[in-house]
Design brief:
Largest sheet: 2 strands, antiparallel
Structural class: mainly alpha
Shape: rod-shaped
Low-confidence stretches: none
Mean pLDDT: 87
Number of helices: 2
Strand order of the largest sheet: 1-2
Radius of gyration: 42 Å
Strand content: 5-15%
Helix content: over 70%
Length: 129
């Protein structure tokens, strides 16, 4: 839909320029500073429009390259940051696993001591009987 509007607007602009050019066909003097020439006004209008279009394309291309360069720099920085965060996340996950395993080992030792104490109590009760 967006491209259709562009085509319609472009066609309307071409029609307006063509009508304006047809209405202005008389020869006019153009001074370049060192010489003066007599050209049809339609030619001057078309050359001026062409120069404006070329300048617009040139500036938009430069702007596009600058945006692309900034985007690539930002993407590289973001990827570096993501890599650093993933490495940090892996390191923290390993620390958490080590901590959990140490806690589990400590809990197992505590349970073993409790069970040994219960076994000793039961052994003492058996010895009394």
């Amino acid at each position: 839909m967006k491209n259709q509007w562009r085509i319609v607007v472009t066609i309307l602009l071409v029609i307006v320029v063509a009508v304006f050019a047809i209405l202005n066909v008389e020869s006019v003097p153009v001074s370049f500073g060192f010489t003066t020439v007599h050209w049809p006004l339609i030619l001057i209008l078309l050359v001026s429009i062409l120069i404006g279009a070329i300048l617009m394309i040139l500036f938009s291309t430069i702007n596009s390259f600058q945006h692309n360069r900034a985007y690539k720099d930002l993407e590289k920085t973001s990827n570096d940051r993501i890599t650093a965060l993933k490495a940090d996340n892996d390191r923290l996950n390993k620390r958490l696993q080590n901590s959990n395993s140490k806690q589990a080992a400590g809990l197992q030792e505590k349970q073993i001591k409790t069970l040994k104490a219960q076994v000793a109590d039961l052994q003492a009760q058996l010895d009394k009987q």
